[in-house]
Design goal:
The protein is built from twelve helices and four strands. The chain is mainly alpha-helical.
């Protein structure tokens, strides 16, 4: 396997890991007002992801940075095309991050209500916008021979990109509900269970639509069809376990494989292309024509081989430390049960 291909796999791994980890706290942030009817219940929901949300978001930064370092042409063309959309995404992520920190600073109902809404809006917009951008990679954008985007903002709203955005948003909501069934207690846990059952079938239907659409767009070989089948099967498993309510751990694992599998399948179907050009297929960016120099990739590979396992161990330890359920304590506080 050549180094450019290795780094394509690394980039795909970071994007997949981002949605597996950040997906559930997108879901919790978007639904905290639904599963929590009082301020204390909403804090129970928020505090389930409080210790980990910012660490999960680092995966997005690393995914973008690895694209910039390993495939600068890909980064330049795609991020330039998504310029206005990226501004919206950054605003959503900033508002969301600030909401986590500012919401609990004052007890005034208006203050907490305002930051609660910004948390909800930011958590909804982020997976939706990222999903549209990822979908555009496979659906294609008007890119010329120099790799410059020649379209308008409306050209970013490809049908497949919009459906993928809605799918990743729905899966984030489902993943968030599954996480709350593992970490919440009391009324928040009960409402998360009920909402999980309602979301199972729509999420599974969207995954099946996206899976078929990927096959139609990319016409992948055996490996591509297998990659597409993984999230489809996991979505069915998540539906069965979610509706039965028998195993919260198995349901969470199934939703994790589903949302991660959708993103991974997208990259498998995309390879060896990086960004499809709708202007002329000859202008499409590929692993071969968009990678950095061999020396740069060698240095990056050594650094990644040392640092990535350390980061994974540290983040795994964080989840182990904060593994207990969150419950409402005295005087409206929240504590680990």
């Amino acid at each position: 396997m050549s180094l450019p291909t290795v780094w394509f796999v690394v980039v795909a791994f970071f994007w997949t890991g981002f949605f597996v980890l950040e997906g559930f706290d997108f879901g919790v942030g978007a639904l905290h007002k639904v599963v929590g009817r009082t301020d204390t219940e909403r804090r129970v929901a928020i505090n389930t992801v409080g210790p980990v949300w910012d660490g999960n978001e680092v995966w997005l930064i690393v995914a973008g940075a690895s694209m910039f370092a390993a495939f600068p042409n890909w980064y330049a063309s795609w991020f330039s095309a998504l310029y206005l959309a990226l501004w919206l995404l950054l605003a959503a992520l900033i508002l969301r991050g600030v909401s986590f920190e500012f919401r609990g600073k004052f007890a005034a109902p208006a203050w907490r209500r305002t930051w609660g809404w910004t948390l909800t809006i930011g958590s909804v917009l982020a997976p939706l916008l990222i999903g549209v951008g990822l979908g555009d990679l496979l659906a294609g954008l008007p890119i010329d021979a120099d790799g410059d985007f020649t379209g308008t903002f409306l050209d970013l709203l490809t049908p497949f990109g919009l459906v993928l955005g809605v799918t990743l948003l729905t899966l984030s909501l489902l993943h968030g509900c599954a996480f709350l069934t593992l970490r919440a207690t009391g009324p928040v846990l009960d409402r998360a269970h009920a909402l999980l059952r309602r979301l199972c079938l729509p999420a599974a239907a969207l995954v099946l639509v996206v899976a078929v659409w990927m096959v139609v767009l990319a016409a992948p070989g055996g490996w591509g069809i297998l990659a597409v089948a993984v999230p489809a099967v996991a979505a069915v498993l998540a539906t069965v376990t979610g509706l039965s309510g028998r195993s919260a751990g198995l349901t969470f694992a199934a939703t994790a494989v589903t949302i991660g599998g959708v993103v991974a399948a997208l990259f498998v179907c995309l390879y060896p292309t990086l960004l499809v050009s709708t202007t002329d297929p000859a202008y499409s960016l590929t692993v071969a024509n968009s990678s950095s120099s061999p020396y740069s990739l060698q240095v990056m590979t050594i650094a990644a081989a040392v640092l990535v396992p350390i980061v994974l161990l540290y983040q795994g330890w964080t989840y182990y430390v904060f593994r207990r359920r969150v419950t409402a304590g005295p005087a409206g506080t929240t504590v680990a049960a």
